[in-house]
């Protein structure tokens, strides 16, 4: 799974968010390293909805503009947990190798 997709799932883990809210949260989660453009975000959301990982939560009109809020589905929470464990295992393997090479690096 791509980092941006993982960050979108993570941004939706605690509450439903609209597009701009997801973009902001991804920036916070990545400490500013990842900046999602709207086209990239909505393509990812369309893909995640089609995969059954994310669903439309609700819509709201704010200042005459429609905001769509998205949330994680049950399968999305399970996939986020799987990806989190996968990354945890990779990080652990990398730390072990670093310690073996140079104990002062780990």
Uncertain residue ranges: none
Major β-sheet strand ordering: 1-3-2
Q: What is the share of helical residues?
A: 55-70%
Strand content: 15-25%
Structural class: alpha+beta
**Total strands:** 3
Apparent shape: elongated
Q: Mean of residue pLDDT?
A: 94
Task: Write up what this structure looks like.
- The protein is of the alpha+beta class.
- 58% of the residues lie in helices and 18% in strands.
- It has a three-stranded antiparallel β-sheet with strand order 1-3-2.
- α1 crosses α2.
- The two termini are 26 Å apart.
- The model has no long low-confidence stretch (mean pLDDT 94).
Q: Could you provide a short overview of the structure?
A:
With 106 residues, this protein is an alpha+beta fold. It is built from 4 helices and 3 strands, in the order H-E-H-H-E-E-H.
Question: Can you lay out the helices and strands and say which pair or pack?
Answer:
Elements: H1 3-11, E1 17-18, H2 19-29, H3 38-50, E2 54-62, E3 65-72, H4 74-101
Antiparallel strand pairs: 1-3, 2-3
Helix pairs in contact: 1-2
Question: What attributes characterize this protein structure?
Answer:
single chain; 106 residues; alpha+beta; 4 helices; 3 strands
């Amino acid at each position: 799974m791509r980092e941006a997709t993982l960050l979108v799932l993570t941004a939706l883990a605690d509450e439903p968010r609209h597009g701009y809210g997801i973009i902001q949260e991804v920036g916070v989660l990545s400490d500013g390293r990842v900046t999602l453009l709207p086209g990239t975000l909505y393509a990812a959301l369309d893909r995640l909805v089609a995969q059954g990982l994310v669903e439309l939560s609700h819509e709201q009109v704010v200042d005459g503009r429609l905001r769509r809020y998205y949330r994680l589905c049950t399968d999305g929470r399970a996939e986020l947990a799987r990806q989190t464990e996968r990354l945890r295992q990779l990080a652990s393997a990398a730390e072990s190798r670093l310690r073996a090479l140079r104990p002062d690096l780990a």
